[in-house]
Amino acid sequence: MIERDSMGNDAGNAPLDEEENRKTYEAVMGFSSEVGVPFSLALTMFFVMLVMANGWLMGLIAGAATYLFAYFVVKAFFSH
User: Fold this and answer.
1) Least CB-packed of 19, 30, 46, 66 within 10 Å?
2) 3 inside domain
3) Within a domain: residue 64?
4) pTM above 0.70, yes or no
5) Is there a contact between 70 and 37 (Cβ–Cβ < 8 Å)?
6) What separation in angstroms does the CA of 52 have from each of 15, 28, 46, 67?
7) Domain total in the chain
């Protein structure tokens, strides 16, 4: 039987304290905004260029340009 504390949490898995929670939140948000969003947009642009029959080289160029643009926009406006 699993033991639970007074808050209903598993006794073996203590909840994160405020400092650990803040560090985890900042790490996840930093990675998703600085890597995840630009990469997703670049991948989308790459496939759009392939579907439009512009060739894979043009898709790579457009994807790289999109990644750089999105990365700098995120760094300029959404990073603390």
Assistant:
1) 19
2) no
3) yes
4) no
5) yes
6) 50, 34, 10, 19
7) 1
Residue 38 included in any domain: yes
Q: Measure the CA–CA gap between 80 and 75, rounded to whole angstroms.
A: 9
- With a CB cutoff of 8 Å and minimum separation 6, the contacts of 29 are none
Domain interval for residue 78: 34-80
Q: Tokens 């996840």 belong to which residue?
A: 28
Q: Residue 67: what pLDDT? A: 93
Give DSSP secondary structure letters for 19-69. HHHHHHHHHHHHHIIIIIHHHHHHHHHHHHHHHTT--HHHHHHHHHHHHHH
Q: Is 80 within the bounds of a domain? A: yes
Residue 53 one-letter amino acid: A
Q: State the pLDDT at residue 48.
A: 92
